[in-house]
C-alpha cells in the first residue's frame, strides 16, 4: 500500500516477460520503490492486486485474456482508490482520453525515459496525475474537440476499414443518405475535407487503429 514503510509498492502488468523483467530490474535500483507483483494479463492482475494491494500499478494497454482498459475499469470498480498508470505504444487522443476517462491516474508511452517513469510513479502515488508529453497534448486537443457520437464512431471505424458508403449502410442497416449525413458531421467535427483525411486523422488521434 502507499503507506508501506518499505516505500512505494508496485505491480507490473504486461504480457511480455521481457518487458516485465526489464521494468522490474530497473525499478529495483530505485530507492523507495519495490515491485511486489507481476501479471501477464488483466484477469491475473485483478487476482494479484487483491493479494498484494500495491500503491501503483503499471498497466499495459494491449494484452490477451483481458486488456488493460477493461482491467482498469474492473480494478477501480472493486478498489476505487487504486492508482494506475497506463502504458501504451499509442499516443492518440482516443486512447489517452479513454484511459483517463476510465480512471487512469497516468499515461505513458512505452518509449518513456526512466526519469519520467519514476516521476510519474511518485506523482500518481501522491495523488496527482501524470501524462507523457505527446499524450498530454493529444488529451488536451481531444478535450477541446467536438466529441463523436457512438454511431459516428461506428461509421468512422468502417471508413477506416475501407468500407464504401453502401457497405456501411448495409452493415448498420441505414439508408445511404443517412450515412452521407453522418459523414458530413464527422468531417466537420474532425475538421477534414474527405474520407482520406478522416482516416488519417482518426488513426493519428487514436480513435481507430488499422
What is the count of helical runs?
10
The average pLDDT is: 85
Which segments are poorly predicted (pLDDT under 50) over 5 or more consecutive residues? none
> Looking at CATH, which topology of the largest domain would you report?
Rossmann fold
Tell me the number of structural domains.
2
Considering DSSP H and I runs of 4 or more, what fraction of the residues is helical?
40-55%
CATH architecture term of the largest domain: 3-Layer(aba) Sandwich
Measured by DSSP, the beta-strand proportion falls in 5-15%
The topology string of helices and strands comes to: EHEHEHEHEHEHHHHH
Q: Per the principal axes of the C-alpha atoms, what is the gross shape?
A: elongated
Q: Strand order within the widest sheet?
A: 2-1-3-4-5-6
| The CATH homology group name of the largest domain | Response regulator
Q: Biggest sheet: strands, sense, closure?
A: 6 strands, parallel
Separation of the first and last Cα atoms: 39 Å
User: For the CA atoms, what is the radius of gyration?
Assistant: 19 Å
Counted beta strands:
6
Written account of the structure:
The protein is about 55% helix and about 15% strand. It has helices spanning about 15-25, 40-50, 70-80, 95-100, 115-125, 135-145, 150-160, 165-170, 175-190, 195-205, and strands spanning about 10-15, 35-40, 55-60, 85-90, 105-110, 130. It is α/β, with parallel strands linked by helices. The longest helix is centred in the C-terminal third of the chain and has 15 residues, at about 175-190. The chain has a six-stranded parallel sheet with strand order 2-1-3-4-5-6, sandwiched between helices. α4 packs across α6, α7 (about 150-160) packs across α9 and α9 packs across α10. The mean pLDDT is about 85. The radius of gyration is 19 Å and the shape is elongated. The chain folds into two domains: about 10-145, Response regulator (Rossmann fold), CATH 3.40.50.2300; about 150-205, Orthogonal Bundle (Arc Repressor Mutant, subunit A), CATH 1.10.10.10. The chain contains ten helices and six strands; from the N terminus they run βαβαβαβαβαβααααα.
